[in-house]
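Milestone M4 deliverable, item 7.
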Amino acid sequence: MTETGEEQDSVPDQRRVQILAQDRVLDGFLAIDRYTIIHEQSNGSLSEPITRLVLERGDAAAVLPYNPETEQLVLVRQFRLPAFVRDGAGWLWELIAGTCEPGRSPEDVARSEALEEAGLSLGALHPLATIYPSPGGSSERIALYWSDLRQAERVAAGGGLPASGEDIQVATLALDEALHMVRAGAIVDAKTIVALQQIALAGEALP
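Output delivered:
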């Protein structure tokens, strides 16, 4: 009998994976690990050895300050070199976000980055999703939250940390405007698109 999609979602994938070799080929601001593995295939047999490179990014957290009453939200804009090198459009609209260093929870990071980037002291954080933005090559996992903008307090100007080379623009936008920017290709950051769509889908059902 064929399982439905709902049933498949509830069953953990127990297929076997064996790591035959692992070594670090780059260890700097970013790390790259080389793995040789075998894994169980869909027909039950084991694959031949496969070698893959994994960009080790660790975990990150991102937050969307949002007012459900007025449908206003806060995004930030900053320069991203990889996007510039790719197509020349280096200044990206994004969620407030940061990397989870050892010992810091995603919630701690979301609050700290909201203060640094947007000058906001946030109230309660509400989970939206946890995503792998590029699982074919990167280990990065991002916890997405939203926080009620009505409960936030502006305590600083924001703008990021100049000592770290950050020059961050902070803007308040309407949800409809942000969704239009997604459709028009003016917002291309994956985590931001996911969060905006989650907010739009939830509507009045937001906690």
